[in-house]
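About this split. The held-out portion is used to measure sequence recovery: a designer receives only the structure tokens and must propose an amino acid at every position. Recovery is the fraction of positions where the proposal matches the reference. Here is one held-out target exactly as it appears in the evaluation file.
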């Protein structure tokens, strides 16, 4: 038993780093098909409410000093608001998304056009993948989800695009169908050489759990209750963590570690199976690069 296990946890000083993100206003948002267990097309949705809630998220990011880019929403693509799925951007290269379900497939080229128009080199995907929904950068490593949406062959593809280590994680619960519904990355930059993440243990198979425990022994383990409202689907600048307002236990866990949780109500977007992180694509601008 290492001393780490019994030592009291010292609260680290957290440092915010300016984030650059891409968002898409839910102008055409609705739930008209069912591709995840959260979606009930027979129930009504309120687009104006979705827009208002999304605007609140946008304004929180603005207040935090983020550089926010917007992509034009496309009529007939109601899920386009979940910008995290539109691709994965790192080192000035955008690895495009290739969606699993036909309803979302036109989003791939729409996002790739935006990336090209904003000076990014686009790596066109051959393999099925849903961008930052399933790929999360932690330090130098890309955590990659599979089981419901992104094909594991895309993990090899993204590894060859970026020349980075890619860690495959198998998702097993259809309610947590994207990696960003089951893991929250809390430190965009390392703190004392490590990164804190939060995750939901029951969302992974045994092999993936072993991998997570080995790599992140000090991770926050989320409660089923918080995960069940997509509380893990959050976005952090290293100090401020924007989370679902109802994820109160997660908020407490974050405070214990020195983070400042900021609750936002995205209940209308939860009807589509998405939360804070889903609405946020991190553009990871290269250090010193002028803009995106
Ligand atoms: N309705 C969307 C889908 O099922 C929700 C996507 C949520 N996005 C995310 N990054 N988890 O594809």
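Reference sequence for scoring:
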């Amino acid at each position: 038993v290492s001393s780490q296990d019994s030592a009291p946890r010292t609260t680290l000083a957290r440092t915010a780093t300016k984030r650059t993100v891409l968002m898409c206003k839910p102008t055409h948002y609705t739930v008209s098909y069912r591709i995840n267990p959260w979606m009930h097309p027979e129930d009504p949705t309120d687009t104006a409410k979705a827009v208002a809630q999304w605007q609140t998220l946008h304004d929180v990011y603005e207040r935090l000093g983020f550089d926010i880019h917007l992509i034009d929403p496309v009529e007939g693509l109601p899920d386009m608001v979940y910008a995290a799925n539109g691709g994965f951007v790192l080192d000035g290269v955008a690895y495009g998304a290739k969606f699993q379900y036909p309803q979302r497939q036109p989003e791939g080229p729409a996002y790739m056009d935006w990336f090209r128009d904003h000076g990014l080199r686009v790596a066109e995907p051959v393999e099925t993948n849903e961008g930052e929904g399933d790929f999360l950068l932690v330090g130098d490593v890309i955590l990659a989800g599979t089981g419901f949406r992104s094909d594991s062959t895309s993990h090899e593809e993204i590894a060859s695009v970026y020349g980075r280590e890619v860690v495959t994680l198998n998702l097993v619960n259809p309610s947590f169908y994207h990696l960003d519904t089951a893991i929250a990355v809390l430190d965009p930059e390392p703190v004392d050489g490590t990164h804190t993440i939060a995750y939901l243990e029951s969302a992974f198979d045994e092999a993936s759990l072993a991998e997570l425990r080995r790599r992140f022994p000090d991770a926050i383990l989320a409660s089923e209750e918080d995960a069940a409202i997509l509380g893990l689907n959050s976005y952090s600048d290293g100090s401020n963590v924007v989370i679902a307002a109802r994820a109160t236990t997660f908020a407490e866990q974050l405070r214990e570690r020195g983070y400042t949780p900021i609750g936002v109500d995205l209940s209308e977007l939860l009807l589509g199976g998405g939360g804070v992180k889903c609405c946020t694509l991190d553009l990871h601008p290269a250090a010193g690069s002028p803009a995106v």
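Annotator remark: The CA atoms of residues 35 and 283 lie 26 Å apart.
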